[in-house]
Amino acid sequence: MKGNFEFRTRKSNRSLWIIECIDPNCSWRLRASKIVPESTKFVIRKYVGVHSCSLLNRNANHHQATYVVIGEQVAPQYIGVEKGPDPKGVQTFVRTELGAQISYYKAWRGRKHAHTLIKGSPEQSFHVLLSYFHMLEKLNLGTGQYRGVLLVATAQDGNGQCYPLAWGIVDSENEDAWTWFLTQLKEIIGDTDELALISDRAPSIKKAISTVFEKAHHGACAWHVAQNIKNKFKCADIMGSYWSAVNAYRCEDFTEYMIEISNRYPRVAEYLESEVGFEKWSRCHYPRLRYNITTTNMVESLNSMLVNARDFPYVALLNVIQEKMSKWWNDRRIVAMALTTPLTPSRESQLRPRFAQSNGRHTSQLNPVTYHVKGGELESVVDIFNKTCTCKEFDIDKLPCVHAVAAAHHAQVMPPRMVMGAPIDEVHLRRAFILASSTTRSGSYAVSFFLLFGRSPAV
User: Fold this and answer.
1) Helical axes 122-138 vs 314-338, angle rounded to 10°
2) Could you give the CA distance from residue 267 to residue 68 in angstroms, rounded to a whole number?
3) Are 321 and 302 in contact (CB under 8 A)?
4) Which of helix, strand or coil describes residue 170?
5) How far apart are CA 85 and CA 72, in angstroms?
6) In this predicted model, what pLDDT tens digit does every residue of 344-361 receive, in sequence order?
7) Threshold 0.70, pTM exceeds
8) DSSP labels for 226-290?
């Protein structure tokens, strides 16, 4: 093939294979037969490797460059990697390594055949799926082209990173599928009135959550609500006020932004209040802790992470997920164990500028745990024991706001060390980060106590 010479099969049966150059006058030929009659292996008995025919017989569009041959030749390049060469890359490989010219379609089929050789076919994957799950459980790892939907539930760790808790493959996205998935998830995390569940407003998710999680509160992804507003009311120019209302910590500020929306688009204001509900998408009205999370962007990040693996058979896809999650936990554990500060890196970064911002604030003590802080745009009252501030940032994010930092200075207690009685939430601490990066089994998860739900396109 590398010399661009084609061959034809002179004889082929279960015990003998004879091929010769396509030019009948050429001396090139190969004869192979079984080692022994009952064997499945052939041995070359005769080989004349020099072509005596004209160079005019060379053909770069090699007849024997089938997608099967191409797949077998390129297969090693897909071992141990997630993506490997795309069809154009396969064309380049065949041209440079095999000396043949092939079409994009043949390259695509060769690539698909290579995937099957390395990762198995969809049919094979489906049939070994139960065995795969059995071995996962036994080893305590945590747990056709048959189309399906990949479901995921993720939390957030104390470093602000995505923390997937559960994955599931279902035949389609519907209420029954979500109910099954959430029921399995409930076995791991339980159901409490402190649990916040955030997703888009798909009816199937909404119904399943209300069925499975009776105590938790279901919130809406603010980005999906925004898309509904733009599509339904054609008012993209109001998005600035909408996002200000979404992110407002104080209800007073939220009301001002809603008045702006109502004055310009009263139907949008009615939609947000009556059809969606303020408590579903507004940070200040949400009845549970959702920390800094207003959207399901973390789910979209997981979708992007798996973009190259979506077409894999089920077992290969699950292997990719397992490998990535194992790497995540190990990398995070290394970072956590190397920390010398009491807080996680991202929370340390958030607090540092607040030290500078707190300078010049006038702070007076009202009682042993309450401080009045003046200066800046807003006067606030801070309770360092109950982790509250009238600006509401401290209450919702559970990380000291600039007013709490000023109060800590006045109390002569450094904010990163205010962890025993107040005011920093346990989830932001180094020790919780270590626990979260070291825990891969069901049990205690040191993560923000909310969950994001989403799905990946058909897999």
Assistant:
1) 40
2) 60
3) no
4) strand
5) 14
6) 898 888 888 988 888 889
7) no
8) HHHHHHHH--GGGHHHHHHHHH-SSHHHHHHHHHHHHHH-HHHHHIIIIII-HHHH-TTT-SS--
